[in-house]
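Running this now, will post back.
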Amino acid sequence: METSTQNYEYHKLQLKDHEFKGFSDLIYKLAGIHMSDGKRALIASRLLKRVKHFQLKTYADYLKLVTESNNLDERQIMVNLLTTNETYFFREPPHFEFIKNEIAPNFQGGSLRVWSAASSSGEEAYSIAMTLEEKLGPTGWEIMGSDINETVLEKARNGIYPIERTKDIPDKYLKNYCMRGINDQQGKFIIKKELKRNVTFRKVNLIEPLPKVGKFDVIILRNVLIYFDNATKKKIVDSLHSALNKDGFFIVGHSETLNNVTDIMKQYKPTIYRKT
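Update: finished.
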């Protein structure tokens, strides 16, 4: 294959129908994510940098590359590029109030386990941690964050964010659990290690059999199910249901519902379900 691209006009490169279908089928197979035609521009823009990186001339060339058996690392890069979703601290605040006021009081002196099942770069997990630390103190709770995207998981473990992200964090939490970066961390803020000690992150692909993660009292899977078709939604919810303790809570995003997906959990409040 000719790969000379010195004068190649990448800005004119179009993602053709068969290429779009190829990437859509592949990301569905690997991550269960349904890419509608409305995602064509997203796929094209995010993968163009990899086409350029390998000095390829078509998206089909890149598709061939990532489907070859010896290119597992590049396949993961492709998954990372196509599964990065927007997140921020204390997104949809009523859920954190619910955890603070209705769940945490039942675990005074106990052991509360929470799973942020699509934690992205960690903002959700650390928002829960701040909430629980304030209510329960430094012990008696733990949080596991998970994602399919290795790149965002590394960001989550580091716990370092642009200073602009502080706008969504209440002042009392900023003061108690965050530090302003200095020197090479200028313009950033850092989650304090005292808060991070009860928070872990690991890679989990929700459409695959769950690894040994134990049981949880709360599982949060927000603004993720909207990317799956109904069959995959049911598969994921049924799988996570098995990781919930009896009477455990399952929380979805405000634009999501389990209606017509599964009936194995009972609605407790809008967007909040319970294992019974």
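The mean pLDDT is 93. More later if anyone needs it.
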